[in-house]
Write a structure and sequence with these properties.
- With about 200 residues, this protein is of the alpha/beta class.
- The protein has 2 domains: about 1-120, Rossmann fold (3-Layer(aba) Sandwich), CATH 3.40.50; about 125-195, Arc Repressor Mutant, subunit A, CATH 1.10.10.10.
- The chain is about 55% helix and about 10% strand.
- It is built from 10 helices and 5 strands.
- The protein has helices at about 10-20, 30-35, 60-65, 85-90, 105-120, 125-135, 140-150, 155-160, 165-180, 185-195, and strands spanning about 1-5, 25-30, 45-50, 75-80, 95-100.
- Strands 2-1-3-4-5 form a 5-stranded parallel beta sheet, with helices on both faces.
- The longest helix has 16 residues, at about 105-120.
- The model has no long low-confidence stretch (mean pLDDT about 90).
C-alpha cells in the first residue's frame, strides 16, 4: 500500500491514477493530521509525503512517525529542494527525497525501492557494511566535502569553508558520488548515514 499525504487534491488524484495504473494500491490523505488519525491499524507499505503543507508539515510528520514507532519508509516530496532540507529529511529517517516536478518513472522507482526496503529490513546490517566500505575509498578532501554536505552546506559554502573554488567542490562532489555509486544527493546522504558518517 502506498500512503500519499498531500494537501493538493490535484496532486493526490494524479498520483493515485499513476500508482493504480501500475497495480500499486494507494490511499490518500489531505493532511498529516488525517494520516496520524488513521495510524492505528495502517496497512504496511510506504508513504509519499509533501514537505510543505498547512498545519503539520512533512518534516514534522516524519519526526512524529518515528516518535510513535512507525517504521514505514517515507519519501519526502518538495517543490523547494535545498541541500539543508534534504539532509534534515534523511536524518529524520526519510528513505528518499524527490524534487517537483519529478518524472513518473522517478516516483515509481523511489516507491518500489521503499517497498523493497520494507521487505528486506533484515539486510540493514549488510547495507551498512557495504556503505562503510565505499566511504573508506574516499580521499581526505572528498570525505571533508561529504561531512559538510551532511551539515546541509551547498557548494559555495563548502568552497568558502575549505578555501577552494566552487568548481573544485563540484569535482570532489562528482568523484565522491561516483565512488559511493550514487546518482543523487539523497543517495549520497543515505549511504553516508548508513555508514555512520557524521556531519562536519
Amino acid at each position: 500500500m502506498v500512503h500519499v499525504v498531500d494537501d493538493d487534491a490535484a496532486v493526490r488524484r494524479t498520483l493515485a491514477l499513476v500508482l493504480t495504473a501500475h497495480n500499486l494500491p494507494v490511499r490518500c490523505y489531505d493532511s498529516a493530521e488525517q494520516l496520524l488519525s488513521s495510524l492505528d491499524g495502517i496497512e504496511p507499505g510506504c508513504m509519499v509525503v509533501d514537505l510543505r503543507m498547512p498545519g503539520m508539515n512533512g518534516m514534522a510528520l516524519q519526526r512524529e512517525l518515528v516518535r510513535r514507532g512507525c517504521r514505514l519508509p517515507v519519501i519526502i516530496v518538495t517543490g523547494h529542494a535545498e541541500v539543508a532540507v534534504a539532509v534534515q529529511a534523511m536524518k529524520a529517517g526519510a528513505v528518499d527525497f524527490l524534487e517537483k516536478p519529478y518524472s513518473e518513472a522517478t516516483m515509481l522507482a523511489a516507491i518500489r525501492a521503499a517497498l523493497a526496503q520494507l521487505a528486506d529490513a533484515g539486510q540493514h546490517e549488510a547495507q551498512a557494511a557495504a556503505a562503510a566500505q565505499r566511504v573508506a575509498t574516499l580521499t581526505p578532501r572528498e570525505r571533508e566535502v561529504l561531512h559538510w554536505l551532511l551539515d546541509g552546506c551547498g557548494n559555495k559554502m563548502i568552497a568558502q569553508t575549505l578555501g577552494i573554488s566552487p568548481r573544485t567542490v563540484e569535482i570532489h562532489r562528482a568523484r565522491l558520488m561516483e565512488k559511493l555509486e550514487c546518482r543523487s544527493l539523497a543517495e549520497v546522504l543515505r549511504t553516508a548515514l548508513a555508514a555512520g558518517v557524521e556531519g562536519g
